[in-house]
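Structure tokens please, single chain.
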Amino acid sequence: MSQKIIPESVVSVEAFQNNNDTISNYIMLQVTWLGLNAYLFIDTFIWYEKADSFYYTRVILGSTLAWARASAMCLNFNCMLIILPVCRNFVSLLRGSSACCRGDLRRLLDKNITFHRLVGYMITLHAAIHVIAHFINIERYHMSQSEEAGILCNILGNIGNQSNKDYLNPIRSYNKTIIKEVFVSVAGITGFVITLALVLIVTSSTELMRRSFYEVFLYTHNLFILFFIGLVIHGTGQIVRGQSAHSILLHNLTYCKDHYYEWGKTAQCPVPQFSGSNPLTWKWVTFPLVLYTFERIIRFWRSKQEVVITKVVSHSSGVVEIQMKKSGFAMEPGQYIFLQCLTVSRLEWHPFTLTSAPEEPFFSVHVRAVGDWTQRLLAQCGASRNLCLEPWQLPRIAVDGPYGSAATNVFHYNVSVCIAAGIGVTPFSSVLKSIWYKYCSSHYDMGLKKVHFYWLCRDTHSFEWFADLLISLEEQMSEQGKTDFLSYHLFLTGWDENQASHIALHCDNDLDVITGLRHKTNFGRPNWNKEFRYLADSHTGSSIGVFFCGPKPLSKILNSMCRLHSSSDTRGVHFHYNKESF
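Here you go.
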């Protein structure tokens, strides 16, 4: 039903003894990452500020040399990291490995997209520092050939004019414009390409652009190919040059830096020779690029596997269920897939949460027409005209996945709390269906002992398509004497006067007038402080998993409730917060 679901989970911050909060694994990861960035920046900065081989370079450029090189080092580091979180198959492989990924570590991997964004912000920051520093460097290189720069700068700026081999200053003529000098060099051209690609990627990745113009976000993100090609080539321009190792041995820096008028006239002070450093970026990015290449090969291979649409079901509220089959497809509750419809677009892939259970002979997604792509997809399936098409008339669908998400961890707790807002109910459709099938199987021993399900909707129509599943679950639990296993808490946050009158007229019915469930619908928004206090009192000493899919403002409230109501005693109740973002 929901579209563009990008799964990620938020690792909880648990309270412990002495009323102090322990640092979560994700915060530890952030601190480690920031620490490495700080270390690489400071260490590189100090080295370029102190190294003898760059003493004469610093005479012309000053401290902007160190700023440019330190930011370049951090760019290499973060460009290595930026690809890893979006290697979905690699992340899923780690996620599914119980040997190396348990509990908090699994939830840490669910933050892959958030970490990808953070690394992107850091790349943007260091790219800005790098570009500004080099603009200043180019200006200083240019000015070093003027009389106002001083005798030593003039000498250094003109070294190598004859042979053009051992020069320090890449600006070879004072009469040429800086812009022209920049765009005729390898470093200048690739730097422009890198910067332009980065600006387009960053500006199209804002939340507004992703939600309003998803296709723009999708297409511009493919500019990362140009970005990395330019990044690898950029260092070959060797615009920053230092004194060569052979020259340092012959040129006594301690004496010669103050006796530059003797350069080339005495054996003690030969004219210094300069060379560029070998490019290092390829060493940083080779592994992630190779890994991502394999990732794309796997995705391409999956996209070519045959997918058969077995059924298209139109539900109320404009929701369409698409049931599919694919050879070798294996899923877990709460996972998601990417769909491509070739007759709609050959380039676009859109994520959807799986709404079927692993026990069913098919897998399904629920789609609502909320954009151009989904509208065209439903039209191809005949749903927009209420047509019942033959299987051969249905469009060809390509599927990539399934991939893990936060909701797959529901069964890892004795007590789980599933909270959905509006269309955010889709991940829990698969979970609740799987619970139903597991209870139908008498030989299955499920560690999950209690589920609290909260669903908030603005209007009664949103309940309609999901109510049948809830009714079936309620009946099944009642037949097996497990009425206490699953608790529903449904909240209607908006209604009109006619609905209110109808609800009041039937308030004494055994079944809820809106959903048909034994559990009655609540009106208004829940008091989360009261709800979490009830959960904490009902499950003392338990580790409770809280799973949420919905808007960010409510997510922040629930996350704070998890921290507030986690016990300061390690033997008390603790809430672990997990979030699906869409």
